Amino acid sequence: MSESKKADLASLKIDRSRRNPDRPRRKIWPWIVWPLVLAGVVIGYFWLKEDITPAMKVKAAAASYLSGSDAEATLVATGYVVAQRKAEVASKGTGRLVYLAFEEGDQVATDEVIAQIDNEDIKAQLDLYKANLMTAEADLENAEREFRRQQGLRESGSNTERELEIAETNVKLGKAAVAAAQASIRAAEVELENTYIRAPFEGTVLSKNADVGEVVAPFASSSSSKGSVVTLADMTSLEVETDVSEANIQKIFKAMPCEIVLDAYPETKYPGYVKKIVPTADRARATVLTKVAFDNLDERVLPEMSARVNFFAKAATEEQIQQRTVVTVPKEAITTREGQKVVFRINQDIVTQVPIEAGRELGSLVEILSGVKAGDRVVLSPPGKLATGQKIEISY
Fold first, then answer.
1. What are phi and psi of 164, to 5 degrees?
2. Contact 322, 340 (CB under 8 A)
3. Distance (Å, rounded) from C-alpha 131 to C-alpha 133?
4. What is the pLDDT of residue 128?
5. Strand pairing report for 392-394 and 56-62
6. What are the residue ranges of CATH 2.40.30.170 in the chain?
7. Relative to the CA of 134, which of 120, 249, 317, 345 has its CA 20 to 30 Å away?
8. What is the CATH class of 56-71+325-394?
9. What's the pLDDT at 375?
10. Location of each CATH 1.10.287 domain in the chain
11. Residues 362, 328: contact at Cβ < 8 Å?
12. d(CA 336, CA 189)
């Protein structure tokens, strides 16, 4: 190979000892900085997680002590005071109300006239029937005299058998006319009595349903008429009707001692007893109606008052009742997770799932045997996704 070709080939070799000053150098710092930034973001997220996580809104209540008879009760249920003897007193006739003797709260005796509807037309009809009776009685008297005369003539042979039979028939017709007139009078008297609205039993007027001048009718036969005049109740028949769940009905028995507390007078406790357990259940609500009677009533107990009933398995002394104290939470605070009854206890704005041991149902409360102490705040109706460590916000 010639020397010139060798020189050309040598000129084609790469000289690695020389660098091109115009070529940009590769930057290394991004590969260091970006991982550090990413790590800082992750660390900041977990550090600030509690502050940036949206809080779940929940309602809360506090566990509280229950003492006295409320704590001693085997079961607690709520209900209403109901008069077992109550009537919507209405008229048997139809007419305009002209007299009303009583107002709400008035006492009424048995058969006392409460109200009266217009009866002038019935009185006039009754007078007519009485006049018809007088006429019928006079006709009967004439017929009987004629019959006696015909009998005398027949004995002397001065008349025929047919004339005697006619006289006898006239007497029978006269008696029938008198009986018909008397029946008409009795019907008119009944119709007249129906215009007087009387109390079916001794009681108290709860409400006035019609006023003087209005038309009343049986069963309110038209839209413009009233069906009843007053609502009457026997205040000595007041009882508490309460619904006991099917799951607890086996705890209730007839004559079981009870304590009735009216919401209107929470400091007053009325002794009572189970009078009747109605032998049928409410399918929709899964409850059994239980009637609780008062041992003693006073004038403060009124129909439709709401009441709480404490059922006792056995009678306890006052000292035993006062010594009993239990911790309770609202029934809606308890939920089931993995087969265990739990509540969610609130610590500041974070919840913790706490297993509990539940005892008796005491109305809207549940006795807590372990797991929660009085004063602990718990979540009401906890959502299914609520879990330990969840941030919450209490809504009122």
1. -65, -40
2. no
3. 5
4. 95
5. parallel
6. 74-84+234-311
7. 120
8. mainly beta
9. 85
10. 120-193
11. yes
12. 72
- pLDDT, position 116: 93
Q: What whole-number distance in Å separates Cα of residue 346 and Cα of residue 63?
A: 11
Tens of pLDDT along 307-343? 999 898 765 555 555 556 778 888 888 898 888 999 9
pLDDT along the chain (396 residues), means of 10: 55 54 57 68 60 73 72 82 92 88 91 92 94 94 89 81 88 94 94 92 91 81 70 94 91 91 89 93 92 92 92 64 72 88 88 87 81 87 86 79
Q: What is the DSSP code (8-state) at residue 170?
A: H
Q: Measured over all CA atoms, what is the biggest interatomic distance in the chain, rounded to whole angstroms?
A: 200
The first and second tokens of residue 230, run together, are 């007053």
DSSP label at 220? G
CA-based nearest residue to 170, from 133, 148, 149, 144: 144
Say if residues 244 and 252 touch (Cβ distance below 8 Å): yes
User: The domain at 74-84+234-311 falls in which architecture?
Assistant: Beta Barrel (2.40)
Residues of the chain with CATH 2.40.420.20: 56-71+325-394
The domain 120-193 is placed in CATH, from the list 1.10.3470, 1.10.8, 3.40.50, 1.10.287, at 1.10.287
Which of these, 184, 166, 200, lies nearest to 86 by C-alpha position?
A: 200
Alpha carbon distance 337, 342 (integer Å): 7
Quick one: pLDDT at residue 196?
92
Give 101-148 pLDDT, tens digit per residue. Answer: 998 989 999 999 999 999 999 999 999 999 999 999 999 999 999 888
> Long-range pairs for 261-264 at CB < 8 Å and ≥24 separation?
261/307, 261/308, 261/309, 261/310, 262/81, 262/300, 262/301, 262/305, 262/306, 262/307, 263/305, 263/306, 263/307, 263/308, 264/300, 264/305, 264/306
